[in-house]
TrEMBL record, chain A:
KW Transmembrane (keyword) present: no
Start and end residues of each Glycosyl transferase family 28 C-terminal domain: 2-173
EC number in record: 2.4.1.141
Organism: Caenorhabditis tropicalis
Name this protein carries in UniProt: UDP-N-acetylglucosamine transferase subunit ALG13
TrEMBL record, chain B:
Compartment list: Endoplasmic reticulum membrane
Residues annotated as transmembrane: 57-75, 82-101, 129-146
Protein name, as recorded: UDP-N-acetylglucosamine transferase subunit ALG14
GO-annotated molecular function: N-acetylglucosaminyldiphosphodolichol N-acetylglucosaminyltransferase activity
Similarity annotation: Belongs to the ALG14 family.
Xref: Pfam families: Alg14
One Gene Ontology cellular component: UDP-N-acetylglucosamine transferase complex
InterPro entries documented for this protein: Oligosacch_biosynth_Alg14
Annotated membrane topology: Single-pass membrane protein
Organism: Caenorhabditis tropicalis
Keyword list, A-Z: Endoplasmic reticulum, Membrane, Transmembrane, Transmembrane helix
GO BP annotations listed: dolichol-linked oligosaccharide biosynthetic process
Length: 179, 164
């Protein structure tokens, strides 16, 4: 029962720190999570989290156990697909690539929008997908309560649009398609 | 883009992939795709970026000019029947070059732009430029909201999904 947290290639300290806040960890335990695995990118934990969760010691990767939860983190991996596929729920930044990857796996998914970025057009997609019921969308501040949102386990399954009809349409315009 | 051309059969046999020179992953993907369909008639061209994220406007005029010269040579050499474009700024010089040769009747080319799935409410800068100067034969969007806002764009319903 792993909760996988990913920031992709972005810098999103608010997300990784908020996931390790007391409230969030408590709520993750409530929904049955036993392990929190974080991909933190270029980000850094804040001092309060380092002291409370990691007993003052952090590096580029590491693990600890805290209040009955196993916590592990790393910066980057060539491919995070496996970690994602093994997860029970995913909490991620609202990047398009991350969104589509997680949805293809049909996992319960919370996207966290970085409200400190101006004109964050990446979030457009997350908001749209949330409106259509494929994922939950929140900001770092509302993450703890979103973890307990019952909708998390009854999300719609997303089918990526096939491009078959688009390809047919293009063939017709060029004049090589079947009519 | 690869998702889309997977649905092409042998209609477009000779393919040229144009990849930004700063892009490190697309080349492998393109090669893997051509291998999977046992085709060797393809080439990969690297185009200089028209504008890096955050580059100043003055130097981007120079680099856009550079990219346009590259695009003109490339289109003149390959003489495509179809030009498929997506996202980044590098697509503008390619579209300009293809439209130019089409206009002077050197080639008869269909120019198609596909907007990224990330764009839900507004076209990207590249998409908007191509939309407003009307240089594409078809501008494909992936969300109905965009179609409403930009009536000349094309939104194709996924029929499979509707039948559910």
């Amino acid at each position: 029962m792993t909760c996988f947290v990913t920031v992709g290639t972005t810098l999103f300290d608010d997300l990784i720190n908020k996931v390790l806040s007391e409230e969030s960890l408590e709520n993750l335990k409530k929904i049955g999570v036993k392990k929190v695995l974080l991909q933190i990118g270029k980000g850094n934990f804040e001092q309060n989290v380092i002291d409370r969760v990691f007993e003052g010691v952090v590096a580029d990767e590491g693990s600890t156990s805290f209040g009955g939860l196993e916590i592990e983190y790393y910066r980057f991996k060539p491919s995070i697909c496996d970690d994602m596929a093994d997860a029970f729920i995913v909490i991620g930044h609202a990047g398009a690539g991350t969104c589509l990857e997680v949805l293809a796996l049909h996992l319960p998914f919370i996207t966290v929008t970085n409200d400190k970025l101006m004109d964050n057009h990446q979030a457009e997609l997350a908001v749209q997908l949330a409106d259509e019921g494929y994922l939950l969308q929140c900001t770092p501040a509302t993450l703890p309560e979103t973890i307990l949102n019952a909708g998390l386990f009854s999300l719609r399954q997303f089918e990526a649009p096939t491009k078959k009809f688009v390809a047919e349409h293009i063939k017709q315009i060029v004049g090589v398609g079947k009519v | 883009m690869l998702e889309l051309i997977k649905h092409f059969g042998d209609e477009f046999n000779e393919r040229t992939y144009i990849i930004a020179d700063t892009d490190t992953i697309s080349e492998d993907k393109a090669i893997a795709h051509e291998k999977s369909r046992n085709n060797e008639r393809f080439s990969i061209e690297r185009i200089p970026r028209a504008r890096e994220v955050g580059q100043s406007y003055l130097t981007s005029i120079v680099s856009t000019f550079h990219a346009t010269v590259f695009a003109l040579k490339l289109i003149n050499r390959t003489r495509p029947d179809l030009v498929l474009l997506n996202g980044p700024g590098t697509c503008i010089p390619i579209a300009l070059a293809a439209a130019f040769f089409d206009m002077i009747r050197v080639i008869d080319t269909v120019i198609i732009y596909e907007e990224s799935i990330c764009r839900v409410k507004r076209l990207s800068l590249s998409g908007a430029i191509l939309y407003y100067i009307g240089m594409t034969d078809c501008l494909i969007v992936q969300w109905p909201g965009l179609k409403r806002r930009y009536p000349r764009s094309t939104y194709i319903h996924d029929l499979d999904k509707k039948e559910e």
